[in-house]
């Protein structure tokens, strides 16, 4: 799936791993249900829920114009209790 950019590994996502939440950076057009279905099929697990948010970029200031640009989209997928997925995906 080319809409999945990478798995986010930051301090907050590591804490969420203990509660069976996995954080991914995805394409902005991807929906929650598409992401959940893809994770379930690819990793052979069952998802419990999905949360999404947009990561804001820093505001660019060019002369008198302030440009607000949106950053990448972050999705957090919660798996059912008996399931888990590998921490790192291969980065080729």
UniProtKB/TrEMBL annotation:
What InterPro entries does this protein map onto? Answer: Nucleotide-bd_a/b_plait_sf, Ribosomal_uL23-like, Ribosomal_uL23/eL15/eS24_sf
Q: Which GO terms describe its molecular function?
A: structural constituent of ribosome
Ribosomal protein as UniProt keyword: yes
Identify one Pfam family in the record.
Ribosomal_L23
**Any one GO biological process:** translation
Q: What keyword terms does UniProt attach to this protein?
A: Ribonucleoprotein, Ribosomal protein
Q: Does the keyword Amino-acid biosynthesis apply?
A: no
Query: By its UniProt entry, which Gene3D superfamilies does this protein fall under?
Result: 3.30.70.330
- List GO terms (cellular component aspect): ribonucleoprotein complex; ribosome
Protein family: Belongs to the universal ribosomal protein uL23 family.
Q: What is this protein called?
A: 50S ribosomal protein L23, chloroplastic
């Amino acid at each position: 799936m080319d809409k999945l950019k990478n798995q986010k590994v930051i301090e907050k996502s590591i804490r969420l791993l203990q509660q069976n939440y996995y954080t991914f950076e995805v394409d902005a057009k991807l929906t929650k249900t598409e992401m959940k279905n893809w994770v379930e099929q690819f990793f052979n697990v069952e998802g419990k829920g999905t949360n999404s948010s947009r990561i804001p970029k820093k505001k660019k200031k060019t002369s008198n114009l302030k440009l607000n640009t949106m950053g990448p989209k972050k999705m957090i997928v919660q798996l059912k209790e008996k399931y888990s997925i590998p921490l790192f995906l291969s980065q080729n």
